[in-house]
Amino acid sequence: MDGYGVDPDTLVSTGDRLVEIADAAREAKAELIGRVSAHEGANQGFAAAQKVTSLATAWEFQIDDVCKRTAMAGGLLEDGAHRYREMEQTVLDTLPALSSAE
Fold first, then answer.
1. Distance between CA atoms of 64 and 54, rounded to whole angstroms?
2. pTM for the predicted model, two decimal places
3. What Gene3D superfamilies does its record include (predicted)?
């Protein structure tokens, strides 16, 4: 299918990669939160400990938001590729080929 020059496989692979990036960011966030929590009691008396906890909480919120948006974009690319394939096949089934002599 030549269609509009859209490569649905590239859309799907890009969407998959965006989902992988979101998953990796979630893992990094979990590691950060785990490390902060592990030392929370030992560092309780230090002024920096409160700042680190505050920073970790802010990062947690931001990373969650970015992960959701990134995964959603990946899903939308995959859905778009599927819908494009369906639409292009419908057009090909409905209209004669432009190069036909009929």
1. 16
2. 0.64
3. ESAT-6-like (1.10.287.1060)
Q: Which tokens is 4 given?
A: 């509009």
Residue owning tokens 């931001």 = 62
Please write the tens of the pLDDT for every residue from 68-80: 898 899 989 999 9
Which residues of the chain, if any, have pLDDT below 70? 1-4, 39-45, 49, 97-102
Q: What is the DSSP string of 6-20?
A: --HHHHHHHHHHHHH
Q: What is the pLDDT of residues 91-101, one digit of tens each?
A: 888 887 666 55
The packing angle between helices 47-94 and 8-38, to 10°, is: 170
